[in-house]
Amino acid sequence: MDRRLNADFYTFISPVVDLRAYLEEAYATKERVDDFFLVTARDPSATTKAEDRKFDMKKDFAAIANCKPWTANKIFDGDLQATRFLACPQQRTFEEINGIHNIPPNPKLRVQKYALERNEYAKNAQRKSNYLRTLKYDKFEMYEKDLRRSHSTPMHLPCAKDIIIACTVIIPHNRILSSDELRNTRLLTAERKLILRGDSTLLSLRQKILCICDTVVELEDGKELEPVDQNKTHMLLYPSSFVFIHDTFYVDYSLPHSQDISEPIREFMARKKCFDPVTSRDIEGVKMIDLKLRLGQPYVFQHSGTCEHLLIFHDLRLLEKTDVQDLDRYPMVVFEKKGDTRCSACARGYAAFVVEECERLPSPYMLFCDECFREFFFVHAVSEYFGSTSFSIRRVLISCKSANLLIWKRFCLMASRLPSVLACTCRSIVTSSSSHNRYDPRLFRDPVTDIKEMHQPLDENDERNFLFLKAMKSDDTPVFYRDHTVDKLTRVIMNSGRKETARHHVYAALEIIKRRQYKAWRKAETEEEKNKIELDPFVIARKAIANCHPLMKLQGVTRVKLLRGTTYQVPFPIEKAEAEFRAMKMMRDICRQKAAHGETHLKDILANELLAASQNEGLTIQAKQELHKTCEANRAYAHYRS
What we know:
The structure is a single chain. By secondary structure, this protein is an alpha+beta fold. 36% of the residues lie in helices and 16% in strands. The protein is built from 22 helices and 18 strands. It has an 8-stranded mixed beta sheet. Strands 4-14-12-13 form a 4-stranded antiparallel beta sheet. Strands 1-8 form a two-stranded antiparallel ribbon. Strand 12 and strand 13 form a beta hairpin. About 13% of the residues have low confidence.
């Protein structure tokens, strides 16, 4: 595999490292270094002859560094003296040398440079309050390696002879990637990082990698609301897995009915001359210290059929006394990628269902929380809402409370990579991009967005059988929870490309409208008064925008007379799409103007304007009327249109 990847060519990949040989060599080197610099602490007789030992250290240094004796004397007596780095050598106490005035202006030590920069930065009187305010919103993660020092072994106790190595697990990509995606560096995003000891087993590392693919359950048609059978999870249906490191496939047989799924891969590699010979063995009993690997080179962990994770080992060193000595606590998770995917419908609840290939949805893969899934696909707990449509539904099964958060994060990471392009059957919606604005009417027809019409059978003479469909506009959709007017209002209100912020303001305003209308409905005494109150905020928004549509617009027309041009504001008739845009633009400008004066939040102002405009009141209606008055006053320039 090294020859296929050309590992020796890359500088970030180390040569092949035998971890056991590294441990012996590194530990022997550490002992030699300790013997050289800490002889006084090891040999009690040397404490009485400090001057002789100092001379021996100079002599040994000259022999090791291959320099003259006078050079060694100059280094020990001059450059290595602590007083050389003090501005005032006579001040030897900590309190005396801790002040900012005692740091040399041009220090040589990095510690002094950082201390000088920190003191200069802290001269501002507001720095402390800034630090406290920032610390209020800072967060830190309490993983298995606690932030306390109680886990460390006391310094007087011996340290075990072992190594420490870090392993980074990359997020999986369970689909064929395009050429552009293969060049994207975001593919190597770390999913989690672990610390292992040399005595840690490879099986413990495999069990520490939690993936949402192991908890997915395929749901049968008509049984989506029944209790999930835990024996149908992918972890039990596809228990086989392996870890490939260097030239060996370590197969996991710990689960029942596990098989060696690396056999076809090894047969394929044996037929190709570009691969080195590989072997396979049982992962049981294999320790990290027994491995031979390259630091920085990606290896593979495969499970649940085709789910692959890249494993990268790095940061190899000896075990120190400050490290956790308890072997049972390894592997330790020191980092985990966050990001929880919400429901595609409500954007509030956590996704629990993955719906695939449903022609009623705008995407081939959509995520639903439990509540939205029941409301969208079931009426009174009966799956008759969509008739005879066929689609597959998968659910994530959470069976272990302690692993709840970790498994949810794995699910959200996988779900966030699902494609979100628009796709339904060719009978109703096409996936082609709207790159052309002109269609030959002999070859193209308008797309169908009505759900009822989409389900009606086609006649043999229906033009949809032999004509192409036009690309559907971005704001046209058959999904009931999307509204054309609200989507367009979101785009009009959007400022500096912050579409999520604009969508938040619009939907918050609609929520305020619904709450106000519901309160008015509760206060209504008679049934007639209740029937007059509209509770749907989308209907109110559409009515408000329709009431604000101007009938005319003013457009500048320049006329040249006697080499001098005069621009006249000429009234022009306006089309429906432009009238809708101008109505939204007038409402947006009024809301921004009120918000700039600090009256209240934008969502409250927008809610007030929508409610007022739905009753032909408010500043937006006044702006429309003023525009009509100006057009009426300039009707004498109407002949300048041509």
